[in-house]
Fold this protein.
Amino acid sequence: MHPIPELIPHLKQLRLSGILDSLEARNREAIDRKLAYTEFLSLLIGDEVARRENKKLDLRLKRANFRGHKTLEGFDFDRLPTLNRALVHDLATGRYIEEKVAVLIAGPCGTGKSHLAQALGHAAARQGHDVLFATQTQLLASLRSARAMGTYERRFTALAKVPLLIIDDFGLKPLRPPEDEEFHDLVAERYERAATVLTSNLDFAEWGAAFAANRMLGAATLDRLRHGAHRIVLDGESFRSPKLLEAAPAVPRKTARS
């Protein structure tokens, strides 16, 4: 009698029904290789652990709200010859997350800042960290919406506690009251408690200009972000350079009949 039909209800009761996906293949492998019972069991358990980890990773990536599948493997380092690759790969180990410091990425439009930030976030998710990616505009809009709905404190707390918060396009739009205060409060709450990645088109010396209405508040915010932070400068040609259009074939002109 085949054992699998009898195993199904027991595996479901133990919440191990995922084992069924590889049970038959592993059973054939055990017979062909003449594996011991413990070796066969180890293979099944390994499959189940891998399945659960993949499921958790898929959920973390979905919650992260990335714009696409941006990884370091897909990043074109050759276009940025001055980029400190050693630093980037060191950051990909997640050391800055354990240090609870910021990674500040600056560079012109189209040089890959968003890709690099998301790639670091993807690496962090694979290491088991929860990640959230948002542009500055999206982040502040979510807080504004939460305030209107009476859920501001809950939303603020969630943003403050996420192990890695990635804020894209910092300073693209000036921060004005009350958004500058909310941004400061969030940075202050995360200071030395969680890691943050920021990208900006502005040079590092210009970041204070993002706080157009309150430079003192901006100085206090940036002081916390810069403390112990890792800095990356991207300097190269834009990845978004327009393609040259091929010349359209000439249309023969009709001659007028006499």
In short: The beta strands are 102-106, 131-135, 164-168, 195-200, 230-233. The longest strand covers residues 195-200.
